[in-house]
Write a structure and sequence with these properties.
With 383 residues, this protein is of the alpha/beta class. The chain has two domains: 191 residues, Rossmann fold (3-Layer(aba) Sandwich); 164 residues, 3-Layer(aba) Sandwich (Rossmann fold), CATH 3.40.50.2000. The strands form two sheets. The protein has a seven-stranded parallel beta sheet with strand order 3-2-1-4-5-6-7, sandwiched between helices. It has a six-stranded parallel beta sheet with strand order 10-9-8-11-12-13, with helices on both faces. The longest helix is centred in the N-terminal third of the chain and has 25 residues. The radius of gyration is 21 Å and the shape is globular.
């Protein structure tokens, strides 16, 4: 008798093409090719719906009660309580209706999935991309929730694993580096730079405070004092509810008379084209970033990279062997280091070559696929 296909329900906290979403798409590909039946619930409609259905998975939307920091107030928590309760019931009914065997929850900010999985007695694999900071009660709550409502927890980097190991049983936690697949093929530009050519420094990421865009702008201001040929691109949009932060950044640029040098490009799908015009990518995060995908994108395009010396960026850049690591809260020093680094062609090329070799070795799509399938298989067997 032919064995029935195992059914996976996947929950994801956003509907965009930023880092965590790209990893979700890879996981969906892996599961479908391994003959799992994949169902996906997203919190709202967006770019991922068609991409997911084109891959052969079922995709629907429902408000999952995603727990973001903006809800950490009395009114917000009451709102989340109601949304999470409704989502738990919806997911629980979905599990029953479609005979789901296993739940996969992408990111730690979805509470409703773990509650529904526990209610229906099925395993829940949590794939965690975040290092929660800034609110100790929030950290403790998400940590204890992951412990009691996850069968297995996948951490995307050593930095993430170190943070969550405080709360989890050691048998739950598994570190799995993302396997980066980017069809980006820029070849090195050996053309000698013209003396009057602009130097383009680019930031790519969500416009949220933790990504450090204000620090990026402060460093840009200092760089322009050293060389007026610099120009700066800020690529990305923000979450609903964070529009005031985007307005604050743009006002800050105007107030510092930088509007002719710093350009906000919004959400772009042509990242390869943006990187092709960039001379340096500066990831300016001021809170621990688990494993910033933009650094991989830049490396694959052979664009030199700089990042603040925090968490996943340090792992990707191999403690500075693969790019420039910068201090926090010192825009002037960061500008000096960037300016000197940019002028050192030999060091930049050496870092790029090392970065390509290092990422191919440690962030292999083949190893990622093996690790993901092993986790799903062993969790399914033990349920």
């Amino acid at each position: 008798m032919k064995q029935s296909t195992n059914k996976i329900l996947l929950l994801h906290s956003s509907n965009d093409m930023y880092g965590a979403s790209r990893i979700v798409l890879q996981v969906i590909d892996i599961l479908i090719k391994a003959k799992y039946e994949v169902h996906v619930i997203l919190p709202y409609n967006g770019v991922l719906n068609k991409i997911i259905t084109d891959k052969g998975a079922s995709c629907s939307t429902y408000n999952l009660g995603v727990l973001r920091k903006k809800y950490l107030n009395l009114k917000g928590l009451y709102n989340r309580f109601l949304k999470i309760k409704m989502a738990k019931n919806y997911i629980s009914n979905y599990i029953d209706k479609h005979h789901i065997d296993l739940l996969y929850t992408s990111t730690s900010v979805i509470i409703s999935g773990g509650l529904a999985a526990k209610k229906r007695g099925i395993p829940n694999i949590s794939h965690i991309h975040e290092i929660p900071t800034g609110n100790k009660l929030y950290e403790i709550f998400t940590g204890l929730f992951a412990r009691h409502f996850s069968t297995k927890v996948i951490a995307v980097s050593n930095s993430v694993a170190k943070h969550w190991t405080t709360y989890l049983d050691k048998t739950q936690l598994i570190k799995v580096y993302n396997g980066i697949v980017f069809p980006l093929t820029k070849t090195p530009n050996n053309t000698k730079r013209k003396s009057d050519q602009n130097i383009t420094v680019t930031s790519i990421g969500r416009l949220v405070p933790g990504k450090g865009h204000k620090y990026f702008i402060e460093a840009a201001k200092e760089l322009l004092k050293l060389n007026n040929q610099y120009q700066f691109l800020i690529v990305g949009d923000t979450f609903p509810g964070y529009e005031s932060y985007e307005d604050e950044l743009k006002t800050f640029v105007v107030e510092n008379n930088l509007h002719e040098k710093i350009h906000f490009l919004g959400l772009r799908t042509d990242i390869e084209s943006i990187l092709g015009k960039s001379d340096l990518v500066f990831h300016s995060s001021i809170t621990p970033d688990s494993l910033p995908t933009v650094l991989f994108e830049a490396i694959k395009m052979r664009v030199p990279v700089a990042a603040t010396e925090l968490a996943g960026a340090v792992e990707i850049l191999d403690d500075g062997n693969c790019g420039l690591l910068l201090p926090l809260n010192n825009a002037k020093k960061s500008a000096d280091l960037i300016n000197n680094y940019f002028k050192d062609e030999k060091l930049k090329m050496l870092n790029i070559e090392k970065a390509i070799e290092y990422t191919d070795q440690h962030f292999s799509p083949v190893q990622f696929k093996k690790n993901i399938l092993d986790i799903f298989k062993t969790t399914m067997i033990s349920k």
